[in-house]
């Protein structure tokens, strides 16, 4: 972390990590609670981003569109009562970390780029408790909500195949 802060029991922390192997990038994020203290609101927020990610991966199939992924994410997060930042979202990925294709975290089904086998994308639902505005800290890197409320973020890089999407960043 690019700042001087000691994590304490109960903190909600998101790690967003990327690697490049053999010239291909992969991007993944996980939100978790540090230590043993479990705030119910933090647990629910993390769970919502994980459910949104699973719903998005389920619709990431050939013939569907980016809007179908966005709708799946937005529906889960909105139904859970969370604010959704639309500035940040998923993206195409491959020889570069952030490709031109943007995948918003809310949207309308049946719209946008058509998904085709061979496409690599990172899907990353973000949710916040009481605002949809993220700000960047003075370190130029750390993102947080403008109100200081809890935020969570889950992410996988997937490959669109002829059938179900293949998760490329699943823990082994």
Automatic annotation (TrEMBL):
Q: Coiled-coil intervals in this record?
A: none
| Superkingdom of this protein's organism | Bacteria
Q: Which InterPro entries does the record cross-reference, listed alphabetically?
A: Creatinase/aminopeptidase-like (IPR036005), Pept_M24 (IPR000994), Pept_M24_MAP (IPR001714)
One annotated GO molecular function: metalloaminopeptidase activity
Gene3D superfamilies, alphabetized: Creatinase/methionine aminopeptidase superfamily (3.90.230.10)
Instruction: Give Gene Ontology CC terms.
Output: cytosol
State the name under which the record lists this protein.
M24 family metallopeptidase
Annotated ranges, domain Peptidase M24? 2-162
Q: Which Pfam families match?
A: Peptidase_M24
